[in-house]
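Hi both,

Apologies for the delay on this - the queue was longer than expected. I finally got the zinc ion-bound model through. Below you'll find the protein sequence and the ligand SMILES exactly as submitted, and right after that the structure tokens for the full complex including the ligand.
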Amino acid sequence: MNDRLCPCGTGRPLEACCGPYLDGAEAPDAPTLMRSRYTAFVRGHHAHLLRTLHPEHEDRRLPTRVLRERLEKQAKRARYHRLLVLDHDGPDAQGLHRVLFRVSMKLAGADASFAELSSFAVAEGGLRYLTGELVDLKGLEQLGVTTIAELEAHR
Ligand SMILES: [Zn+2]
């Protein structure tokens, strides 16, 4: 694969995809922010991950130094293979934007792929990552679920 291409899977060069958001621009919508956060994980761009955490995200209670150490530890063990954004919706009446996605990855050589329904809300002048709810990846595959509506119908 051409490593000039953005890791998030759009097929575009990094500079024309997630690059500007890693450099501090505000993402225009939740799927774009989600993609840029994935790219930040892949490239070890931890400042972007910290900057885009919502003030009410539970990790914001921890000192930045602790969060950085945690991200650095994970970065050493993780190998990211692919992001697939399945669906998104919002904002709802509470201002929540949601993104359903799956990530193929390995941690210390073992498959650690997962699916997540993330919530984002505006704070500090842009969209921020508020919460992530892990979704049963095998269940998604078996049921053929690819949208948030289908996911909710199976809960
Ligand atoms: Zn990208």
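Main takeaway for now: Residues 30-43 form the longest helix (14 residues).

I'll put the files on the shared drive as well.

H.
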